[in-house]
Write a structure and sequence with these properties.
Layout (H helix, E strand, L loop, with lengths): L1 H18 L7 H15 L6 H28 L4 H18 L1 H18 L4 H39 L1
Helix pairs in contact: 1-2, 1-6, 2-3, 2-6, 3-4, 3-6, 4-5, 5-6
Length: 160
């Protein structure tokens, strides 16, 4: 039974790493599930300090996932309204184009809304590029976090 719990936790943590680079996959939540499956059902769960640290890292991954693109749009000069509508646009495009649609939808929505709000093409393009960079940077940070969570988890299971 213990081996099954450990294997399940590791599968969730690996899925989180893969999901960190795929739009619409909740990498942080998968990491959190893997950590807590083992913490609750493993035969010799690691200490509370390790559990707390892994939990904080997983929650940070969720936060990065949710705010990366919108924060980049805001940093690029987009309005709050544009950021909110772009988030919805990403979700709508995801229904049509699948996971890639999230990125395309967010970037295209930022570009079009900036044009509608009176920005010139260069400014709208710059703001859309900031948004795209933020979405990609968010994925990179999520990958680093989920890889760190997996490595720390494996070390904690082996050492403790």
């Amino acid at each position: 039974m213990v081996e099954v719990v450990l294997a399940g936790a590791v599968v969730l943590l690996v899925a989180a790493m893969v999901g960190s680079v795929l739009p619409a996959v909740p990498a942080g939540l998968l990491s959190l599930a893997g950590i807590w499956v083992y913490a609750l059902y493993g035969s010799d769960p690691f200490g509370s300090l390790v559990l707390g640290g892994l939990t904080v890292a997983a929650v940070a991954t969720v936060v990065v996932d949710q705010v990366g693109g919108p924060l980049a749009a805001k940093a690029g000069g987009s309005s709050n309204r544009t950021v909110i509508i772009a988030t919805v646009g990403g979700l709508v495009f995801a229904l049509v184009l699948g996971p890639l649609g999230i990125i395309v939808g967010i970037v295209a929505t930022v570009f079009l809304l900036e044009l509608v709000e009176g920005a010139d093409t260069e400014t709208a393009g710059r703001r859309a590029v900031y948004t795209a960079a933020g979405v990609l940077a968010s994925s990179a940070v999520q990958l680093l976090l989920t890889a760190s969570i997996l490595l720390t988890f494996l070390l904690a299971v082996v050492v403790f």
